[in-house]
UniProtKB/TrEMBL annotation:
This is Rab-GAP TBC domain-containing protein. PANTHER family: OS02G0810500 PROTEIN, TBC1 DOMAIN FAMILY MEMBER GTPASE-ACTIVATING PROTEIN. Residues 1-81 form the Rab-GAP TBC domain. GO terms for molecular function: GTPase activator activity. It comes from the Eukaryota. SUPFAM superfamilies: Ypt/Rab-GAP domain of gyp1p. The lineage of its organism: Eukaryota, Viridiplantae, Streptophyta, Embryophyta, Tracheophyta.
């Protein structure tokens, strides 16, 4: 249920924007930071808006991974998106003071990396799914750089991975990219 609430924003659109657009823009920023060569290549192919990643974010990798691996990813995304302070905030009468003290207790139980990331405000959070897309792109880096001569080639390369990716490997790559990105922009 929580994961579906997170995904709801992807389907909202107005006359000027598509809900998933902000994630695609964030993906472009991440790729520009962690792999400028691939980002430049994709921009030169008129793929700088990363619309080729639209399906991955909309259906959360259901096509790129096997069913079992997709379930693993969805569970992982839900658990990583979960904010431990949310429940205490909803339980408090005024929604502020007791939640803040409970959040401080949660932060004391975390390591340095987790504390830093839990303190990021909700609007600054980047969903794990965006980093998984970045991991998929990194895994296909050599092929994208050597074979992609246009956006059709990028889409074909990404369509060729249907059901063949390893979720645990993609997650490890996503977490490495996440850490590299946070260390670079912080």
């Amino acid at each position: 249920f929580h994961l579906l609430n997170i995904q709801r924003g992807n389907f909202k659109s107005t006359s000027t924007s598509i809900g998933v657009r902000s994630q695609l823009t964030t993906l472009a920023s991440i790729m520009k930071t962690v792999d400028p060569k691939l980002h430049e290549h994709l921009e030169n192919l008129d793929g700088g808006e990363y619309l080729f990643a639209f399906r991955m974010l909309m259906v959360l990798f259901r096509r790129e991974f096997s069913f079992v691996d997709t379930m693993y990813l969805w569970e992982l995304m839900w658990s990583m998106e979960y904010n431990p302070g949310l429940f205490s905030m909803l339980e408090s009468d005024n929604g502020t003071s007791s939640a803040n003290s409970k959040d401080e207790n949660v932060l004391r139980q975390c390591g340095k990396f987790e504390r830093k990331n839990l303190q990021v405000t909700k609007k600054d959070e980047i969903p794990l799914s965006v980093f998984i897309v970045a991991s998929v792109l990194e895994a296909k880096n050599k092929r994208l750089l050597s074979e992609a001569k246009g956006l059709d080639d990028v889409v074909k390369i990404l369509n060729d991975i249907t059901g063949s990716l390893d979720a645990k490997k993609a997650c490890r790559g996503a977490l490495q990219i996440h850490e590299k990105y946070l260390n670079t922009v912080s």
